[in-house]
Each structure stands twice: as structure tokens, then as C-alpha cells.
Amino acid sequence: MRFSITTLGCKVNAYESQYYAQELEKLGYEEVSDHEQADICIINTCTVTNTAAHKSRQKIHQAKRLNPHAYCVVVGCYAQFAKEKERDQLDADLIIGANHKNQLVPLIQEMVNQDTHRDTVSDIVQFNDFEAMPIHYFESKHRAFLKVEDGCNQFCSYCAIPYARGRERSLQYDQVIRIAQSLVDQGHLEIVLTGIHTGRYQDGNKTLADLLTGLLENTPEHVYYRISSIEITEVDDALIKLMKTNPRICHHLHIPIQSACDETLKRMNRPYTVAEYKQRLAYIRAQIPDISISTDVICGFVQESEEEFQTTLQNIKDLQFSFLHVFPYSKRDGTKASFMKGEVNGKIAKQRVAALLSISKELRKKDMARFQPVQVLIETQDGNTYTGYTNHYHPITIESKEPLSGRITLPWDTITENGYYARKV
Fold first, then answer.
1. Where are the beta strands (DSSP E) in 240-323?
2. Count of alpha carbons within 13 Å of 293, Cβ hemisphere only?
3. Which of 43, 59, 119, 351 has the most neighbouring CB atoms within 10 Å?
4. Separation CA 417–CA 146 (nearest Å)
């Protein structure tokens, strides 16, 4: 049978979709694109904003129109967050929320064999166990991802994730080590630890620093590790010391700030002030001088005045990030922020996004100029052109007549709008 997977939302969703695809292919199912005819259409949904929820519904209806006789499987955050009546209106054959994701394939088999219709969504507070979804092979054979944590306890006022994914929970330490070793056996050279709150990894008394120590000890010297994203409150001294002393942990951290104005942060229910964020950032940089730190920023949050935005703008410049991911605030019904008055005009929010993205370009060039030569993991090849990312997560294009592979060190020639450019003579 042929199946398609449509994925919306975050990198964790992308990871989970790849797990579903691998498990189905093991049983002889054939994956096709979501524009082709399929027997089973899987839509991995997102609900982080009203727009994301609308897109999820839209993709479900599109899949049903294109494949009127196919089984429709809806999984993920939107499925969990939607009310029962809303789920009924989807007319899906199988609905899976935050729980039973690792049983998606056997549930699909049951659906096909018995021609059943089932909604498995249960109350988000009824489960606390981490559902392991190990992926043992990534097609690129270079960078691999390993999901070690799920859920969130933070309850930022704009975010639906705690209601859609449940409370924080982590993959068992021994399982993480075994999956990493399997990825190494398949030839992967870099493993990215990922989760909703990767920095809050906890198995008994083992923290993220303990986990990374175990991974370093149980995998070969040529295998490097990267942390996908981490909160400033989660970068503890043990993690900083480990990154400082072991070059196999890439010296790049993505630490969301969301706003660089205390008044805005308070309305967002973020657990730090700008001064606390700056102080911790200064300590990290003092301990690891060559580290690159990127961030996320939300523009146009409820009641964000021009004065607040200018404060954010100035503080972002002062903090000297390596680059920014910038998003206009988008309302999500049911969150605390959705009940607040004082929405910012959409055009103003877009102007603020553009201003920060312009700063991001300059910040990236400035950060890139710090490193010469650079260490690169080669990821793609097109003729004599190779692309990859440096340890500090800057993109690079390399022209070389000789074959390139793996992790290499080389000098760059120029810095362009698209990253480093190098010729390997």
C-alpha cells in the first residue's frame, strides 16, 4: 500500500514523521509525496497558533479531496488540542494526539485489516511516560537527530504546547545511548539532541550534561554532538564545563529570548529578565569564548508598544547573537495571551520583523568573520559544489574538484549573503 505524510510545525514533528515513515516502510508500505495518489494519508498537525491550526485543517481536507477513497490519519498537536466535536468534523479514520504516537503503525494496520474508525485522544494529564520513537538511519548519513525529551511545563502565555504535548518527560538514559550507537553504526557523524525542552532532560538524577557525558564516552571520537535548542535557565554550569572541555560538542547554542524587553517578557510569562539573560550569556561566553549563540524573537506580542520594541531592538544589538529567527506574534485561542486586550496591527508587526531580520544579517556576518579556518560537516554535493554547516552552525558552499566527505577543516575565501564561500585547491 502507498502512504503519504504531510508534516506541519516544528522539528520535533519532522522527526516523528520520519519515524512513522521508517516503521511503515519496514512493513512493505511505499511512501509517496502528498501530491500523489495514496491509500493512506497521514497529516502530522501543529496547533501552536490559530494559523497553524487552520493550516492543519486545510491539509486534512486537501488530502481527503485528492484521495477520496484513502484512509485519513490525523496525528499530533492539533488533534490533541481540538475539542471532541471539532475532531468529529474532520471525518478522519484514525486520530492520535500526544499519546500512542509510537503505536501509529500497528493502529494503522488494525484500521486497514478491520476497516475501523478510531479516535485515541485522551486527557493530556493522564499520561507521563516518554514514548520512544527511535530512528536508526537518516538518508543524508551525516547529521542525525535523536529525540530525548517531550512536553513542556513552562506555560508561556502565548503557547499551546503544554496542552498539546503534555508535561515534560524524557527517554531513558540507556535507551538514548543504544540509539546513538545504532546511528553511529549506520555511519552518522553528528547527532543532534532534540526535544520540546531538550535542556530539561531528566532520567532519575541524570541531567542533559550527564547524558552528553555518557554519549561521548560510549561513541567514537569522530562523532560530534549538537543541542537543537535550550532555554537560558537550562544552561547549567555542568553543561558549560562539558562544552568548554570537549570539542566534540559543537560550540553553538540556540537560546530563545522571545523579547528583549522586561515588560513584554512579563506578559509572555517568560522565566527571566533581560538582565538575568544578559548575565548568563556573558558567563557562557567568558567560559567558551568561541561559542556562537543564536535566538528566537517574537515581534508584535499583545500590547507591545513602539517603546518596548525599541528596547528589544537595542538589547538585541547589544547581545550580539550569531543570528535571529524572527516571527510575528500569532494568536492561539485558549492560551492566556488570547484573552489579553491590545493586539498589535499586523503591518506594524511585519515591519518589526523586517527590522530585526536586517539586524540578523549583519550579526551573522560579524559572527562568521570570527572564525578562520572553519570545521565543516559536508552534507550535499552537486557536481563540484559541496554544502554543509560549520561547527558554529553557519552555512558554507565549497567548490572543489577533488571529492569531499565527512568533517573537514578549511579556510574560507569570502562571506556572502548565503554564508561562507570557499575554494578547495
1. 252-254, 292-299
2. 25
3. 43
4. 31
